């Protein structure tokens, strides 16, 4: 891939992403760029490292996901719980770099040691997602993963410079990736089960996000401290969090609260 062609690709990608004014427009731009460089579909998601009750960072939690893959495949992927064995998702949730290049047909050899991969591989091939490229981008405790599904080997697209092009473009896409503007999207898909806070719980979260403590929130909302803590416990349960800090971190990473 010539330096000029590579530079033009980067400039065009930057221009297309810069036109996006919100999260959903960014998602549309990401899909357009992915299509231009040979992908037939895009998966994207956020994973967050959360503090435990002692304030230590322990493990990662899914924040949200989006996908432009075919609905029939997403339904199969969800219903059969194939996400439990997806090597890309599994790596991301462990805080590890996902495989940057995954040849689904060649990966059939892995089924001898991991037979649970067979339904995943079969489904990907049936829907013509024969090759998968993945990139992870970290911003503090939030990791953003971009996964491109391709029907033909993407290494043939741009010659020797293809790997460099995909790495750079994927990083650019991940930097602009945002959770769905409505805070939901496909957020409850692929094993990520959480409920939206109700208006009363949302009020408490908003004040906590501004830096107020629970007593100050109680005073501001003119409710008891016990009621504030009850609302925090309720929304923590809904969102799959263990502590108030985790609850707030998940709410922010999922785009539920204004920054």
Record field, number of beta strands: 5
Number of structural domains: 2
Helix content: 40-55%
* Outline: globular
Q: What's the quaternary structure here?
A: single chain
Instruction: Order the strands across the largest sheet as they lie in space.
Output: 2-1-5-4-3
Structural class: alpha+beta
Portion in beta strands? 15-25%
**How many strands, what sense, and barrel or not for the largest sheet?**
5 strands, antiparallel
CATH top level of the largest domain is: Alpha Beta
- Which fold does the CATH topology of the largest domain refer to? Beta-Lactamase
Low-confidence stretches are none
Q: Alpha-carbon distance between the termini?
A: 40 Å
CATH architecture descriptor of the largest domain: 2-Layer Sandwich
| Number of helices in the DSSP assignment | 10
Short description:
With 259 residues, the chain is of the alpha+beta class.
Structure description:
- By secondary structure, this protein is α+β, with helices and mostly antiparallel strands.
- It has two domains: 174 residues, Transcription factor LuxR-like, autoinducer-binding domain (Beta-Lactamase, 2-Layer Sandwich); 55 residues, Orthogonal Bundle (Arc Repressor Mutant, subunit A).
- 44% of the residues lie in helices and 17% in strands.
- The protein contains ten helices and five strands; from the N terminus they run H-H-E-E-H-H-E-H-E-E-H-H-H-H-H.
- The protein has a five-stranded antiparallel sheet with strand order 2-1-5-4-3, sandwiched between helices.
- The radius of gyration is 20 Å and the shape is globular.
């Amino acid at each position: 891939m010539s330096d000029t062609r590579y530079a033009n690709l980067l400039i065009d990608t930057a221009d297309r992403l810069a036109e996006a004014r919100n999260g959903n427009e960014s998602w549309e731009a990401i899909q357009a760029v992915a299509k231009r460089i040979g992908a037939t579909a895009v998966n994207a998601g956020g994973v967050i490292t959360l503090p435990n009750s002692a304030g230590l960072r322990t493990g990662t939690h899914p924040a949200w996901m989006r996908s432009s893959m075919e609905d029939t495949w997403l339904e199969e992927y969800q219903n059969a719980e194939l996400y439990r064995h997806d090597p890309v998702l599994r790596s991301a949730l462990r805080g590890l770099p996902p495989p940057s290049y995954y040849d689904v047909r060649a990966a059939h050899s892995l089924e001898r040691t991991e037979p649970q991969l067979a339904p995943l591989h079969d489904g990907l091939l049936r829907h013509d997602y024969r090759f998968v490229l993945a990139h992870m981008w970290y911003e503090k405790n939030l990791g953003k993963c971009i996964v491109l599904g391709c029907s033909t080997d993407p290494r043939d697209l741009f010659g020797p410079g293809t790997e460099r092009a995909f790495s750079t473009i994927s990083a650019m896409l991940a930097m602009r990736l945002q959770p769905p503007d409505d805070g939901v999207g496909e957020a409850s898909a692929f094993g990520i089960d959480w409920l939206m806070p109700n208006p009363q719980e949302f009020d408490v979260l908003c004040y906590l996000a501004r830096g107020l403590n629970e007593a100050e929130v109680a005073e501001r909302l003119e409710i008891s401290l016990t009621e504030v803590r009850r609302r925090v416990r309720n929304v923590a349960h809904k969102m799959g969090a263990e502590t108030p800090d985790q609850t707030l971190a998940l709410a922010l990473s999922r785009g539920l609260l204004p920054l």
